[in-house]
Input
Amino acid sequence: MNTIELEGINVRYGRKHVLRDLEWTIQPGITGLLGENGAGKTTLLSVLAGLRRPDSGTVDFSGAFAAPRFGFVPQRFSTPPEMRVMDTVSYAAWVNGLARRDSHDAAVRALEAVDLADRARDRVRSLSGGQRQRLGIAAGLAHAPDVLVLDEPTVGLDPAQRVRVREVVASLGRSRTVLLSTHVLEDVHHLCDRVGLLTGGRIAFDGTVSEIKHKMHAQESGGLESALERGYRTLMDELGGGVQ
Ligand code: ADP
Output
């Protein structure tokens, strides 16, 4: 399993400086990336997955693989709706470097992992939103990546679908390095070994879920917020609201 070290990462879009001398070590297991809208989470995930070159800084890997294989599950998985589920995943496996002859078997395994094997011959357009999300995960992991990066994998899912996706991500995290960005603190609570909080272009907090919970204002209790939500809000207050 791989540890990822980010050092001095800077990304600018024109005059907008989104990531600023960002330092972060991501351990094996499941790490959550939290941050407000516009904080730069998608940008950071793209840098990690090698989809975007930072203006400066380095991404280093240590562990079993000097050059790990990456899988990326975007926020919205768009794929031709007339394609069949199986072909979509085996094509993704081939694009990600598998030999054509291995892609079919890899797709079968990936569809089993996300519980979509029985839909293999159906067209993508016939899938529900949650099934399509799981198809995106299958497409991202069919080539057996060492590091899997997921951008808000449970957005727009109903509670049952969210639990199903959580199960898939949890089982992946046992054998590889998984990083997911999310707004859903419930997902963080159930899934993540560690959490990084991106604000002001940096990882301003890096710790465990229970450390966030203990951040909650001592005098507050009950109400409509969970302990994790209160802790997260307290932490954001301490860090200055998070907006650049
Ligand atoms: P998040 O995923 O946390 O919502 P993003 O990484 O998508 O944040 O975006 C961070 C900031 O950079 C936002 O203000 C966004 O508008 C801006 N941004 C993102 N991508 C681009 C781009 N390709 N060109 C210009 N600005 C961008």
About this structure: The radius of gyration is 18 Å. The chain is about 35% helix and 25% strand.
